[in-house]
Structure formats: C-alpha cells, structure tokens
Recover the amino acids of this structure.
C-alpha cells in the first residue's frame, strides 16, 4: 500500500498506508485525520477535501476536470497546486506522496 | 380567488424567505422585503448587481452568475446541498447563504433566486466539527490502544497506539475480525465472554473494571494487556470500544520485584543473627524468625514500637530505656552498637552483640536496621 503523508496546516504530519484504488480523501477521513472533511462523501460537491499537491507529485495524479475546477472556486485559499482529494485515486506510483492541507476547509 | 388574480409581485412579497428576480447579467429586477431584512437594508436593492453582495475575496475567484446558471439548469446539482455563498450585508458583515435558483422565460431569460440564511446551521456545524476534531485528536494521541468493533465484532477503528501495539500498519486493522487479535487457545472463551457482555442490559458500562487479557500481535507474539470495554449505542448502532494497555513491562517489573522480594526473604528469614527493619519513627516493618526468638511466642511485632517490645531481659525496664536511647541516637544519624545480656525463659543467659544502624538516602533516614549476633558461645564449623 502506498504511504501517504498528510500535513496539517500547523505542520502536524500523519503517515498513512492508503489502499490502491481508494482516494486521498478516503485515506484521510478513514483515519479521522483532522483537516480534510469530505462532507459530500466524494461526489465532488462540497470542496471540503481541498489539499495542495506539491509539484513533484502532480504528474502522478489525474488532472482536475471541469467540475472539480469549478468546485475549487468555493474552497479557501486556492493556489495553483490546489486539488480536491476526493478526485485523486491512489496508485502504487504515489508511494511517498505528500498532501498539504489548507488552514481551513470553509 | 383565482391564482391569475394574484400578481407576481404580490407573490414575491408574501414569500417569507428572501427572494429576488435577476436578469441574466445579474441585475436585480425584483426582490422582497425578506431580502432587505437579510441584507439589513431599508428597501430591496433593486437595479443592483448581485455580485455586489459578494465579499471582494469571493468576487475575485467565484463567478456567481455561472453558478446561478448551472443551478437553474440543474436544480438537483449535488453541490447545492453542501456549498454556500458568502453574502455581504449592509454593515460590511458577511453571512453564509444557501441558494436555490429557478429559470424564468419572460421575453428574455431571468432567474428566480431564493436565499436561505445558514448562519446558525453553520455555527452548530462548526461546534460539532470542533468537538469531533478534539475527539479525533485525543484518540489519535492516546497512549492507550483503542479498538472499536461493530455488532459483528469487526474492527471499525483502531488508533495509532493500537496499530503499534498489535504490530499492524496504518489502516490494516480496519475490517479485520476482532478474533484476529485473540490467541487461538482463548478464542472460544473470549466469544462466550463477549456474548455475555452483549446480552448485558447496561448500554455503556465497563465490562467489569480493567481486566487482564492476552492478545496476539500480527507476528504471532502473545502479549498481556489490561482491557476495559464499553458498549456505546449510536443511533441504534452498537459499537464496542476497548481500551487496552500493554502490561509487558509492568509484568516483567512485577516478576522482577517478586524475585527480588523472594531473594531478600530467603536471606532474611534464614539468617542466624536476629534482624529487624525499623521505620524512621521506630515502628517495626520486618522482623526475622531469629529476632522473634528473643520475644515471647505469638508477640505482635509488625507496626509495633521497637523499643517497647518485651524482649527477654533480666530487667525489662532498663532494657526499654536503653533501647529508647539507642533509637534516639540512631534517629540522629549515628549507629549504635553494644553488648547486651538476655535472660531467656528457661533461665539461660545469652550475651548478644547488638547494633542499630541508620540507613539514609539523600541525607534522609528512611529506615533503621537492628541486628543482634550471638557472643555467648563460639560455634564450631559444622556444629
């Protein structure tokens, strides 16, 4: 299982083995990691699983579709590296990926 | 009254929720008093563009007209349930609102917009999330291992301490049966015990106090744990939560303490010379059989004042005074040593080499050791 490091805004890190085929949001919510809410359960309808993906891992992630880009308009402190964690499916290649979380989701 | 007789503006005015009609480029053409009330303006803000009611930060990144169009075309869009717009009211304060949009075709395209103030809903949600976060952080940082199982005894949550304790990776314990953690030889009795606990009426109480259980780690190693289990019902769904504490270190320490105590008693109880361990205040903490021989049979010694014990003596009063002096000297930190004559009940005389030594730690006396060795007769080897 690829190891995913979730980094909270205050620097607290959580290293989690996330099963291939699940999403970065499920990995966080399943382990009660504070900082990712996932209110809509992965429907890409709430923008409460907003995360930042560092450049080196961007090529390993699918790109954001129109709906995701639209939903990101509702997120707080959106940057170029912003993504919705529910739209990123975990693959073996993502071993070691670092997912930074914003200060808040609302 | 026929519906045709009611004008659109009358309808709009009677709707108790904030409502407006806007043109396709966002200008408000009609609005009710409820909207004015929400925005804290004197009158409905006609001919104003709706984007003016978004805070500047929101305006920069959000295209509200595009979303209005989407929500008009897709009234059941899933995000309508979750997202909200931030509405800037008259005094510059922001208020979160949930929006519903309908499309009107009157010569041109217009949108009917219903707004719902969700400030209170959000406050409640925020408080509940804070409580959840706090609980999640406590669970994640708890030194005790915590394992939650559902009514089928399938693990639904294990905190990091539990994963470390059982030797599993993050997330690996979830969906495993609880029996995976129980050693084979205890599996049957564990099931019986759990079944009893399930039937117990009390909804959330300790399964006894903390009990000792043996569990098996991922590598097959058996470890002793202290466990307490509580039953929690959430919306008629049962969850059993076990709090577990590793006893390996404590058990090893207890075994070492027991071994050490046994060694001490082997020497102490079989020593030929009389020995007693005395508290700094002078009461007896331990006394060996050789010392008990210098007292009447059945004499209660533990907790008694050492200097007031009725040792066999030619003159008990003199002996008591002499012992009190010795004790006072020792309590001041100086060892006492002197020969002493005893008169045993059979009339025989025994001369003993008596000593009383203070035992100090960090300059403070925490115990005194009394010893008495035989001086009356030489004992030949092998006698």
């Amino acid at each position: 299982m690829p190891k995913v490091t979730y980094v909270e805004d205050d620097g607290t890190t959580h290293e989690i083995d996330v099963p291939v085929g699940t999403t970065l949001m499920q990995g966080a919510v399943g382990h009660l990691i504070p900082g990712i809410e996932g209110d809509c359960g992965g429907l890409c309808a709430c923008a409460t699983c907003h995360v930042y993906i560092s450049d080196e891992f961007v090529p390993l992630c699918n790109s954001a579709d129109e709906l995701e880009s639209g939903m990101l308009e509702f997120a707080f402190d959106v940057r170029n590296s912003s993504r919705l964690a529910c739209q990123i499916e975990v693959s073996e290649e993502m071993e070691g990926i670092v997912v930074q979380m914003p200060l808040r989701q609302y | 009254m026929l519906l045709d007789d009611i004008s659109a503006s009358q309808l709009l005015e009677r709707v108790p929720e904030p409502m407006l009609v806007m043109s396709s480029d966002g200008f408000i053409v009609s609005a009710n008093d409820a909207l004015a009330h929400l925005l804290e303006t004197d009158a409905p803000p006609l001919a104003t563009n709706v984007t003016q009611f978004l805070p500047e930060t929101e305006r920069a990144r959000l295209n509200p007209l595009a979303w209005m169009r989407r929500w008009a075309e897709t009234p059941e869009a899933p995000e309508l349930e979750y997202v909200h717009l931030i509405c800037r009211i008259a005094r510059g304060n922001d208020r979160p609102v949930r929006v519903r949009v309908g499309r009107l075709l009157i010569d041109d395209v217009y949108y009917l917009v219903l707004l719902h103030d969700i400030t209170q809903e959000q406050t409640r949600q925020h408080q509940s999330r804070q409580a959840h976060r706090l609980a999640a952080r406590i669970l994640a940082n708890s030194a005790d291992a915590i394992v939650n199982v559902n009514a089928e005894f399938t693990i639904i949550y294990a905190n990091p301490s539990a994963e470390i304790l059982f030797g599993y990776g993050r997330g690996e314990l979830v969906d495993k049966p609880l029996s995976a953690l129980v050693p084979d030889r205890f599996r049957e009795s564990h099931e019986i015990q759990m079944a009893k606990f399930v039937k117990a009426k009390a909804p959330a109480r300790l399964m006894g106090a903390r009990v000792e259980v043996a569990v098996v780690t991922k590598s097959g190693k058996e470890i002793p744990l202290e466990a307490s289990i509580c039953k929690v019902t959430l919306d008629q769904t049962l969850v059993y939560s076990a709090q577990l504490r590793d006893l390996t270190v404590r058990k090893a320490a207890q075994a070492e303490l027991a071994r050490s105590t046994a060694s001490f008693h082997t020497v102490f109880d079989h020593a030929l010379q009389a020995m007693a361990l005395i508290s700094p205040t002078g009461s007896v903490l331990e006394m060996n059989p050789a010392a008990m021989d210098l007292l009447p049979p059945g004499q209660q010694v533990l907790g008694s004042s050492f200097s007031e014990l009725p040792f066999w003596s030619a003159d008990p009063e003199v002996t008591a005074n002499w012992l009190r002096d010795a004790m006072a000297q020792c309590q001041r930190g100086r060892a006492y040593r002197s020969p002493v004559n005893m008169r045993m009940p059979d009339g025989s005389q025994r001369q003993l080499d008596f000593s009383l030594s203070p035992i100090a730690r960090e300059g403070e006396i925490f115990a005194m050791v009394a010893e008495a060795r035989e001086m009356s007769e030489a004992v030949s080897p092998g006698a």
Summary: The first helix of chain B runs from residue 8 to 14. The longest strand of chain B covers residues 94-106. Chain B has eleven helices and 15 strands.
